[in-house]
Every structure is written in structure tokens, then in C-alpha cells.
Amino acid sequence: MPAFPDAARSALADTQLRRNLAHATGTIRARRASAVAELDDWERLREAGRAVKERTLRHLDRHLVQLEEKVTAAGGQVHWARDAEEANRIVVDLVRATGEREVVKVKSMVTQEIGLNDALADAGIAAFETDLAELIVQLGEDRPSHILVPAIHRNRAEIREIFLRSMGAYGTPAPADLDDDPRRLAEAARRHLREKFLRAKVAVSGVNFLVAETGTAVVVESEGNGRMCLTLPETLISVAGIEKVVPAWRDLEVFLQLLPRSSTGERMNPYTSTWTGTRAADGPRAFHLVLLDGGRTETLADPVGRQALHCIRCSACLNVCPVYERVGGHAYGSVYPGPIGAVLSPQLRGTASEVDRSLPYASSLCGACYEACPVKIDIPELLVHLRARVVDSERGRLVPAPERLGMAVARWVLAAPSRLAAAQRAGALAARLVTRRDRLGRLPGPLSRWTDARDAPVPANESFRAWWRRTHR
């Protein structure tokens, strides 16, 4: 993937994408605002969610040990994965042990993070997405662009074409007379998925919350596909980041109010599935929980950056972000798009790549994301914090970055009043050569990157220093 500025430039040129995003995010914002307005104690709920997450991360080691003990006592098995490679190997080995060559999947951000579908495919195992939006992405050989609605960049006409073109290659084909009516599209998806649910012996899921005191896993969803995957197969493999733990069952009271209102604008999730280990007469016969670190321990060690681990994946920050609304999720080059992706991905993956170094700058710092976040993650603070980290990482370069050279020149000029006065006179003279009405035109060389993206005011013909000297002789 290219760095964010280049990817964003390409996305901005796609007018259909911008129309799709504006319509979808606008609709979700309105629903969320209505649902939140019903609660007089919304701000107290946000503060409670933040406090629970902060307290949990402070004692995360203890809660994880308790979680493992409870899951094991209930008949499940816990596996620990340091990184994506180890997590993929564990899941592939578990599926191979069953003798099966296909799995059904519940929508899961963490399995996208580790690239599980590709790892399964390399091992000769077919993975079928059962979430409607994820199904659209899979059939279209596309990539998710939103945390909650992975196919938010597609409209109904595009989805119809994808179903007609690709559904038959994966299973039950779409009806030949399929139109773009939402009900008929959903019906075609249900018919396609039904055979997968009834045939699958292994399911892979993510987890929204893990309750340490009982060993309970929780998945919330809106379609019922998750419930089918979690109950029908004989083997259930759940993959979760270690930050998904909450200490006690009572903590779910807070998050099960915050999450649906912030994500879908609903009072409660249509389907909330919980399971604790295995039972002889109900549900899967084998349950495996894969706990992934994947950079989370390093993130936890950062007193400022650890806020990103509070995220409950509601996507509220994406829906209010003016940058995301115009460029979509693909421009971020990460499974986690939008404001939360701009602060989470560079911490989980590091800032070695151009993509990750550019993400903290993919924001106007307007603060809308912080106001919308149900657990009060101060994303603008994190963005500035990570920008400083990127700058620090570039200090040892043999060839300094243009920004660093520019700041060095500015420091030299500002260090002496005479140099500053000379620079002001030169700037005023040069500005008159490139002025267009009341703003600067395109500056030459590297400076053009600034004027191409911003309207810069024309410098005054006379500096304050010169005015003072003239009027206070």
C-alpha cells in the first residue's frame, strides 16, 4: 500500500466512493445521535467505560491468568500467540486436526489483522465469511474499508453485480433476476450461506469481550450469522486480542449500552451470544481460545499510547471523521481504518514503513473523534504523541527530512532580529510575484506541496517591526 497522502489523493478522485461514504456515514451519525440523546447519563456511561478499561489494563496480567483458569475449567483450551505468524499457525493446526478443509467465519477484525484467511488458503483450507458485508467484500475480492460496515464503499447496484458475478463460484448462486432491492439482496445472501452453516464442522470467530471471572466469551452482532457459527459447528476457534478482557460480568452492563448506540445507533444489539467453555448437550464439542499479543504489550508499556487499547471497535470515530468520509478506509493501508486506525496500527506494527509513519498525520485534529468515542479515547492527543515519535525516529537519518531542514532554517532565521527582518522583507517581495487576488498562488519547488493543499494568506507589505519603527520615531 502507498503512504496515506498518495492513497488519499487517489480516493478523492473517486466521486462514486465519496457519494457512497457521505450517504452511509451521514445515516449512521443521525441514528447514533438519536440513540444517545435518549440517555441522560450518557457522559457518565462514557466515563464508566473509560474507567473500566483503564483499570483492566493496569492489571491485565492478573486478569489474563484468571481468564485462562476459568476457560480451562469450563472445558475450553487457551492458546497464547506472540504475533500473527504464531496465531495463524495455531489456528491452521487446530483446523487440520479436525480433518476438515473448510471453516465458516464470524466477522472478526483480529483475524483480518493477522491475515488468517490467507494463511488458511495457503494450507488448503477454505474460509467462508458469513457476515453480509464481509461476504460482499470476499465475493468482490475486495478489502474491508470500515470497522462496522466493511462494504460501506459499495452501493446496492455494485453489490448486485458482485452477487451475480461471483456467488456461484463459492456456492449457491444468486437468482438470475436479482435486482438491487435490499430485501432481495439479503435473501440471496441467506440462501447462499444456509448450506455453509449446515455443512460446516469448524467455525472461527472473533470476540467482543472476554469475562475473566467466569471465562465467558461474548460476541455481539446484528444479523444472526454469528449465532449460527457459534452453535452449529462441532469445533469453535475464537481469536482475540489480549485487550478484550473485562474483569467481571457486571462490567458488561456498561459496554452493552455503549457499544450498540455508538456503532449501529440501536438501544441493544439484536444478537448477543455468550458461551463459557463447552457443554455435552449444547453447542460445539471443542472450544479453543487463541489470545494474541501482536504488539499489544509494547503498546501497553506506553503511558500515552495505551489509550488505543481501550477501543471497543464501535467505529463511531470513523463516522464523524471528515477525513475518513472523503477518502474511505482503503487509504489507511490498515485493517483498522479511520482515526482509531491512525493511532492503533502504528503502535501494533511500528513506524518502520512509510504507511505507518504517515498515519498519525491522517487527521485535521478537529477532535470530533474524541467527542464521539464511547470510552473517551483522546485520539487527538495520541496523534500528536505518535507524530512526535515519528519525528524522533527520523533524527538519525544521514539525509534529514525536508521538514527537519525547514525547521532548522527557521530556527536560524528566528535566532537573530536582523535575519528575521530581512526574511520578512524578502517574503513580502516574493509573495507579490505569486499572489492571486487575496491568497498566494503556487509556490515553487518543495513549497508547492503546501500551497497545493491550502489557501495561504498573502504576507503583509509591511512587517510589524517596520510599522513600529515608522510610527514611533
TrEMBL record:
The keyword Electron transport applies. InterPro entries: 4Fe4S_Fe-S-bd, FTHF_cligase-like_sf, Helical_ferredxn, LUD_dom, LutB/LldF, LutB_C, NagB/RpiA_transferase-like. Residues 308-377 form the 4Fe-4S ferredoxin-type domain. Residues 395-471 form the Lactate utilization protein B C-terminal domain. Keywords: 4Fe-4S, Electron transport, Iron, Iron-sulfur, Metal-binding, Repeat, Transport. The keyword Disulfide bond does not apply. This is LutB/LldF family L-lactate oxidation iron-sulfur protein. NCBIfam families: LutB/LldF family L-lactate oxidation iron-sulfur protein.
